[in-house]
C-alpha cells in the first residue's frame, strides 16, 4: 500500500529533472558546423603549401563526427527551451566550443599543450584578444585565420544571446530590452532562428564593408580579412606581433569606425537598415558611448601634451590616442603603440574605459554603458530623495520607466562583477605574478578587453610566461565576463535545478 505522501515526493522529484536533450542537440549541431568551418583555414594552408593543413582536416573531422553523434543521440521532437535549458545552453556553448576550437592549435601549429590551446580558443570565442602565443608572425596563415574566425563566431553568438536569452533570463537588468524589437518570452527557440538570421545578415554586411575599407586603406587581402573579423567582433587578435602597429595611418581610422559600429546596439543598426535612423540617434546608450569616448580621448591627449610633454606631429598624436582609446573602450584590444609609455594617468583612465565597455546588444564586452546609466539614474534619484524625502522620483531611461527588478538586477550584476574582479586580482597575485600584472590580467580577462601590462608579459602582449594556475584563472575570468557572470553563477544554485 502506497504511503499518502509518496505521490507528492515522486512528483517533486520528476519536476526537479531538467531535460538536457534539446540543449545537447543544439550544442551538437553547432559543434558540427564549427568542424565544417575548419575547411576554410585548411584550404588557406593547403593553397599556400603549408603542411599544417592536415591538422585542420584531423580536427575538423573529429569535431564534425562528435557533433553529428551528439545530434543523433539527442534527436527528438523540437520544442521551446525552458529558462533552465536556456541557461545551460548559453553556459555550455562557451565552454564546449573552445574545447574543439583548441584542437588545431594542438594538432598543428604552434603545437602547444592543452592549457595554452584552450586559453587561446577561449580568448577567441569570448572576443577577449589576449594571446598565449609569443610569435604570431611565425604562425601559418591558416592558424591566424582560425584565431580570428573564433572571434567572429563568438561575436555573432554573443549578439544573439544578448537579444534572445539574456532578456528572458533577466540577467543583469537585460529584461529592460525584452520588448526591444523582438518578443521572445515563452517562445525562445522559434524566435532565435529569426533573430539569428537578422543579426547574421547585418554582421556579414559590416564584415564585408570592413574588409573592403581595409583594402582601400592599404592592407593586402588576407590582412584585411583577419583584421576585419577581429574588429567587427571587437576581439583584438592580429596576425602580427605588432598588432595594428604594422599598419599605421588610414587603417587605424578605418578600424576606429568599425570598432564603434560593432560596439553600438545591433538592433539600432537593423532599424537603420530598414530606413528608420531615429532610434539610433535617440538611443541614450549610443549618445553616452560617443560622448564618453570623446571625453577619454581629450583627457588622455591633454595629459600627454601638457604633462608628459609628448609632442611631435599633431595628427600622429591624435590618431594614436584616438585609435588606442577606442580600441580599449570598445573591448577590442588592438594596439599600435606601447600605451604603458603614456604615463600613469592614461593607463588608469584606459582601465576605467575597459571596465565600462560598449553598448548592450553589441559585440562589446565588460559592464556595458546601459548598466552605468541605470546606476547613475539610481544615484541621482537617491540624492534628490535626500533633499526632498517625501517626494517620489521615478527612475526612467530612454523615456521608459525603470522597474525595481531592473535596477536591482543591475546593482547585483555590478556588485558581483567588481567582487569577481577583486577576487581574480588576488588569485592571480597569489600565483606569483607582479601586482601590476595581476591587476591588468584580471582586468583584461573579466572585462574581455585584451591588453595587459607587466614584467611577465611578452613583447607582443602574450601571457605564455604565466604560471599554469594563472592561465586557468584567466580562462575562468574570460568565461565569466563574457557570459555576464550571473548566467554562470546561477548554475551553482540548488534552486536552479528545481523547475
From TrEMBL:
This protein's record includes keyword Aminoacyl-tRNA synthetase: no
UniProt entry keywords in alphabetical sequence: Cell inner membrane, Cell membrane, Ion transport, Membrane, Potassium, Potassium transport, Transmembrane, Transmembrane helix, Transport
InterPro entries xrefs: Cat_transpt, TrkH
Pfam families: TrkH
The keyword Transport belongs to this UniProt entry's keyword annotation: yes
Bilayer topology term: Multi-pass membrane protein
Entry's localization field: Cell inner membrane; Cell membrane
Positions of transmembrane segments: 23-44, 56-74, 86-107, 149-169, 202-226, 246-267, 288-307, 347-370, 406-430, 472-493
Family recorded in the similarity comment: Belongs to the TrkH potassium transport family.
Biological role: Low-affinity potassium transport system. Interacts with Trk system potassium uptake protein TrkA.
Protein name: Trk system potassium uptake protein
Organism of this sequence: Paracoccus albicereus
